[in-house]
Design a protein that fits this description.
The structure is a single chain. The protein is mainly alpha-helical and about 200 residues long. The chain has 2 domains: about 100 residues; about 80 residues, no CATH class. The longest helix has 20 residues. The protein starts with 16 loop residues before the first helix and ends with a helix.
Length: about 200
């Protein structure tokens, strides 16, 4: 069983990655449509700040932030569906407030999303397998990797980064094995993160 992160104030239990994925998969088709409709409305009223942005862009960004841990689901405080609505609307508000027109989690490196006093952590890709704490969890993680690894058959660099991640290698270890720079690794990581979000949104 996956261990929970430390509880926050007043015993607020932060969901693990696996619990978040399970909660997403448990949503009905109607719930996912409601999320997409709301995201589409949020995108429409913010075209001034982000021309061409779609509801799927916002929903994908919301899932990516939750998956990467930049938005944390406090299970005892709010149910998953209302939480996802909050994340989507929060992203829309961010676009209006910053007037930047950019979606941060999909466009910034993980280090750029951390506060200065937050300790450095492994990337979400590293944690995906490395944090599996039982043989069963490791097997499930690797099976899930196999499920979307075929998405990268047209991108050799990203495919090999995924392959190394499934072996449990860290970012620096992957760069050393593949002979790629940190910039090339980060570019592959961003591409994988986007497709990863699309994969879970469609499953």
């Amino acid at each position: 069983m996956a261990q929970h992160p430390p509880e926050g104030p007043e015993g607020e239990q932060i969901a693990t990655r696996d619990e978040t994925i399970s909660a997403w998969k448990a949503l009905s088709a109607e719930d996912k449509i409601r999320l997409l409709v709301d995201a589409t409305q949020q995108a429409r009223i913010r075209q001034k700040y982000s021309p061409g942005i779609s509801g799927m862009d916002l929903l994908q960004e919301a899932w990516l932030r939750v998956f990467e841990g930049t938005r944390k689901w406090k299970m005892r405080k709010v149910e998953f569906l209302p939480f996802m609505f909050e994340v989507v609307r929060g992203i829309g508000s961010d676009l209006t407030r910053t007037n930047s027109g950019k979606l941060s989690a999909a466009s910034l490196s993980e280090s750029a999303l951390r506060s200065e006093d937050e300790p450095e952590q492994e990337s979400p890709l590293d944690r995906y397998v490395a944090n599996a704490d039982t043989p069963e969890a490791i097997a499930i993680a690797k099976e899930q990797f196999a499920g979307f690894q075929s998405e990268f058959e047209d991108d050799e660099s990203a495919w090999y980064v995924l392959e190394c991640t499934a072996e449990g290698l860290s970012g620096p270890e992957i760069q050393q094995r593949l002979g790629i720079s940190s910039k090339e690794f980060e570019a592959a990581r961003k591409k994988i993160a986007r497709r990863l979000a699309k994969y879970f949104l469609s499953n």
